[in-house]
Write the structure tokens for this entry.
Amino acid sequence: NAGVTQTPKFRVLKTGQSMTLLCAQDMNHEYMYWYRQDPGMGLRLIHYSVGEGTTAKGEVPDGYNVSRLKKQNFLLGLESAAPSQTSVYFCASSYLGARGFNEQFFGPGTRLTVL
Amino acid sequence: AQSVTQLGSHVSVSEGALVLLRCNYSSSVPPYLFWYVQYPNQGLQLLLKYTSAATLVKGINGFEAEFKKSETSFHLTKPSAHMSDAAEYFCAVTPRSSASKIIFGSGTRLSIRP
């Protein structure tokens, strides 16, 4: 199993450009998440999905859109990139354990720089 | 709202010394609790988890954590630090009322002195 994979690993954008980050998981997990990680701020949830065809806003959703057309994929889109979106982006997937706990599995991250 | 507090953004210990990383949660109902580790330029990986079974939880790489309801704490310890333990550590909780979400602390960077 590859687990959670992210494409691309690195990207440099100019302000105003658009791009899509792809997350794929092969563990048949229902839940998928997009986080951004910035120095001193830990992980902040951007959007998440509790199943195919569903998405929900997290803590910092502005400037991002997501889609979950297939259970195994979760796409994060930036329509008009801004320097404030320079960050490391992590995707995660999870299942709901028998007792209701949520154990998340993370991808390796995408390092995005917006000039 | 549920929150997680990690005391100390940076902890430095000598190789062979005790590691203690602190985590406190705010909830009247004990949540599910996790510790994750992030090595440089990598994603997070699960170190250990508390799911209402034993209050002392053993994880990978010799780490363990003890759930203390009276103190609303879930501190991470390791008896003897190794150079390879240098990483960032995140405490996280899943509220029992909202199992689809996980809330992360701000992280503690652990440095090991030779």
